[in-house]
Amino acid sequence: MKTILKLIALLLWCAPLLHAQDRNLLIQGTVTSMPDNQPIANAVVTIKDTFIETETGANGVFTLSVAPGDQLLVNALLMYPKTVMVSTNEQPLEIRMQYNAEVLEAITVRERQEKEEYVEKDFNKRNKNEVGYSYEDVQTRFINGVDVDLYTVAKKIPMLDVVGNPQEGQVVYNSRMRGALGGSKVPIQVVVDGIPVDQNALGFIDPRQVTNMTVYRSLAATVKYGAFGAGGVISITTTNSGDIRSSRKKTPSLLVKGNNYNEGILPISDNITISSAPSMQEIRKSPTLSEAQRTYNEQRDQPETRNLVYYLDMANYFSKWGAVYEYRVLSDLFRQANNNPRILRAIAFELEEKGHLAQATFVMEKLLEVHPDNIQAYRDVARLYAATGRYKLATALYKQMIYNTVPNLDFEPIHPIVFNEFRHLIANHKSKIDFRGIPNEFLSVNFKKDIRIVLEYTNPLAEFEVQFVSPTKKYFTWRHSAFYNEDVIEDEISKGYAIKEFTIEDADFGNWLVNVKSIDGNTGAIPTLLKYTIYQDYGLPTETKEIKVINLANQSEKGTLDTFIY
Asked: How far is residue 336 from each of residues 59, 99, 372, measured CA to CA in Å?
């Protein structure tokens, strides 16, 4: 029966488009900033009351098929949104956007409080853009408030391999993936505040005291440190360093004074409903399936139902009669999505939350097909291939991401996530994949994470915050906003990813809370959905997994998304 349902669902995706309005006027437009008249890349241009949208290129130019009278909604990072009316005039549109002065002023104030970042070179300070060798500043990406020592941090850093355990001792090796692949492991050297120390110092340095952590791989380390750095070097700057003791901000930590949490468990709605409540009230009056279908067919032609949440609500409603009826509603949404990556990802979120992995895979394959420059789509397809038993295809995709072999794409921003998932695939399905060309550090038999949490969001422009509260009532807040992470959001938009990973290991035992709050309150036709996935005992036979999908537009007030026992 399940096989039949899957076949029916896949056939439904291919059905012809119904209820679509003809849009035969092909227009071109240019989006620029005021008053400097600079082109705005990756601005999102959407036809109001539809799921049709496109993005501007590097030159700020876009093309779109429209109808006279359409309204275009334009959104871009750090800009006020703008609405433009389409006329019968076929002249190129000139759309000028104003900077969000309040956000820019706030960012400027924050930046004034931070010193320019430097690295040390042969006892002299130099701006990091002037250094003539490769290094990687890993502090902001791999240290978070739940880390207990720097061995915990090192486990999350690509190209490093941590062997051993806290009880018997641990050693960090430079895996040398760049250069001689698969070469012998070499213990990495450690320099703290400019002084070489034994590697076991990593077990005693409190992550909250680290202000910068840089990994120099073998060649770069040799250039900087000579023979001492032949195996690679981890250079650590702490709050004890005289250069930064009074000026650099400390890494956020659950242990910082003044971050005592006293709000308790807060309410949150698991229902993504926001704009279709009247429609739901009407359709619930239907006494039979055929009557409900008739009402739905009438509703979906109305302007007020042309929004993402309406279709997701209807899919949930019809699922009580069976998955095939749920798929029919989602297929309507799929056909109207017009290859919109936010809609496609939202459909995949909904399907995966319900456990419909084959259909979720199909949708993500479509996203990858129409948006091959979206780096996260490769990861999503690879992960779903692994989840559905297509291990060889998953391995091939993960290898492409690890080695950056897809032309014109750089997977480095999602490498930590890709590395963890590839290790997980190998640890659980060694007999079903080809080991040729896989670096040695991925073949560890002891791969595991106590708690792994992955956040995925359908729109990188969305602004929200997630708060982790420990059993001792200390908290750490991660913020996805232009004020705190402008560079990250710009990178997400330009490279096509919207994902963040957290791991909790060797932390406080007891009940943890995960709270969430929306900052921007996006309540348009395509509100941002947040998918929260938590793994416990990740990589072990006892692994468990739970997925929750919420509408961030419902979370203008902070609410508790999850509680779990560590």
From this structure: 28, 32, 20
**Sheet order of strands, 61-66 included:** 61-66, 25-34, 93-98
Which of these, 566, 564, 565, 529, lies nearest to 548 by C-alpha position?
Answer: 529
Map tokens 């989602």 to a residue: 330
By residue count, the chain amounts to: 566
Let me know if the fold of 22-103 is the same as that of 117-238: no
| Burial of 400 (C-beta count, 10 Å sphere; 0-12/13-18/19+) | middle
Residue-wise DSSP of 354-405: TT-HHHHHHHHHHHHHH-TT-HHHHHHHHHHHHHTT-HHHHHHHHHHHHHT-
The amino acid occupying position 34 is M
Strand 464-469 and strand 71-75: pairing?
A: unpaired
Whether the CB-CB separation of 385 and 394 falls below 8 Å is answered with: yes
CATH superfamily of 117-238: TonB-dependent receptor, plug domain (2.170.130.10)
Could you tell me which CATH class the domain 22-103 is placed in?
mainly beta
Report the pLDDT value the prediction gives residue 263, as an integer from 0 to 100: 85
Q: What is the pLDDT of residues 299-342, one digit of tens each?
A: 987 877 888 989 999 999 999 999 999 999 999 999 888 789 99
Q: Is the peptide bond before 35 cis (omega within 30 degrees of 0)?
A: yes
SS (H, E, C) 66-84: ECCCCEEEEECCCECCEEE
Residue 526 is which amino acid?
I
**Is the pLDDT higher at 423 or at 397?**
397
Long-range contacts from 351-356, C-beta under 8 angstroms, 24+ separation: 352/384, 352/531, 352/547, 353/531, 353/547, 353/548, 353/549, 354/319, 354/323, 354/326, 356/9, 356/323
